[in-house]
Amino acid sequence: MEGTRCNPVVVLYFILAAIIPSSSTSMSQIAAVDRRLVDKKKNGCVAYNAIDKCWRCDPNWAKNRKRLADCAKGFGHGTYGGKLGRIYVVNDCSDNDMVNPKPGTLRHAVLLPEPLWIIFSGTMNIKLRQELIFTCDKTIDGRGFEVHISGGAGFMLQFVRNIIIHGVHMYDIVEKSGGMIRSEPDHVGIRGKSDGDAISIFKSSQIWVDHCSFANSYDGLIDIVAASTNITISNCHFVKHDKALLFGASAEMPEDKIMKVTLAYNHFGKGLTQRLPAVRFGFVHVVNNDYTQWKSYAIGGGDGATIISQGNRFIAPDGACKEVTNRRQVPESVWRKWTWRSEGDLLLNGAYFRESGNPHWAKTYKGPPLIPAQPAESVAKLTKSVGAYLGCKQVSNDRASTPATGIATIDFGDLNTEAIFLFVSAWLLMKV
After folding, report:
1. Do 298 and 203 share a structural domain?
2. Rg (CA), the chain
3. What positions carry a catalytic annotation?
4. Claim to verify: residue 148 and residue 25 sit in the same structural domain
5. What is the mean pLDDT of each run of 10 residues along the chain (432 residues)?
6. Which domain covers residue 26, as residue numbers?
7. CA-to-CA distance for 321 and 319, rounded, in angstroms?
8. H or E stretch including 347?
9. Would residue 184 count as lying in a domain?
10. Could you give the CA distance from residue 113 to residue 136 in angstroms, rounded to a whole number?
11. How many domains does the chain have?
12. How far apart are CA 8 and CA 374, in angstroms?
């Protein structure tokens, strides 16, 4: 009978009603996945520190990737990387040709003589056969996928400016023998053995390293030397290394007096020993970082370095190494003149910071604005989302930037289920 026919729209309604969960249920499940990344509230994402608040809770971050370029703070403020250039998609994790890199590889991207915003087509591990030498005006943006630089050489930023490195994992970095390597679009030369640093910054300026995860390099995790300046390292996670951060490599290089570095909202965690950082000559602002472990000391240096520590949490290890600071066995009559100040730091488990120098340094400070310190009691929250595990889901909006040979696909997880229901229902009504 005609009356026994099933209306397909009604059938579809009951099917979708059964399989589509309520929005409140799905949000609570998402919120429970990983509180370490981002807390979810009824009105959306929570970003805890001044840098993350600039971009992190934008639901259209994949369309607005370059908004990140407006978010650098501290001495790296104004670093915009490849904001003025096109998007380049790395879709090949190989690194086989040091002289004529293959298009689609990371090495090919960083050598091009133009501003570039470099993203990735998928999760990948890149094992660099030799150090990766950058040219100016580049952003490496790992958001959307897990991008690992491991098992090979690290990054070399020499004689460059305006570089952003964001959202990558760097670990198990080794020294490499060197050889014939292209260092500029029009220059190939013989390079000596690399140091084995994850990131080496040499005579460079306007550098911002943000939301990266570092562990276990042959030499250092980040070295800043040879009059490099205007640098911010923020929201990074450091673990499992001995001599982690070196800012100023030699007492024979007084040109490092111009060096200015901001360390903000980082977490120094398990398995670290010393140099968090160690500083020579320059000015380093250490603000709202979380030091939960060190084996020897946290902050060290010499040669008249200025170190301003504000609003950090220092949790000393059990045992004898309670002092935050280390002055390289310099006589007190010398180091007393160095300005090393602790202001509003939270010192726990017996930690102590040996201050020296001018307590009124701020009255004579004439440099760029410093990041205002938040209370040290809030450091655990400010650093809640450190490292490269950003939780930024890759969405279809990014696929407009993929090479023309790519095949576009639809991720139904990115679509509103109510919109799907209404669209399909309307289509079926036209067919009935």
Report:
1. yes
2. 25
3. 275
4. no
5. 41 38 30 36 72 94 96 98 98 98 98 98 98 98 97 98 99 96 95 96 99 98 98 99 96 94 99 98 98 97 97 97 94 96 99 98 95 98 94 49 30 35 40 42
6. 2-33+402-431
7. 6
8. strand 346-348
9. yes
10. 8
11. 2
12. 59
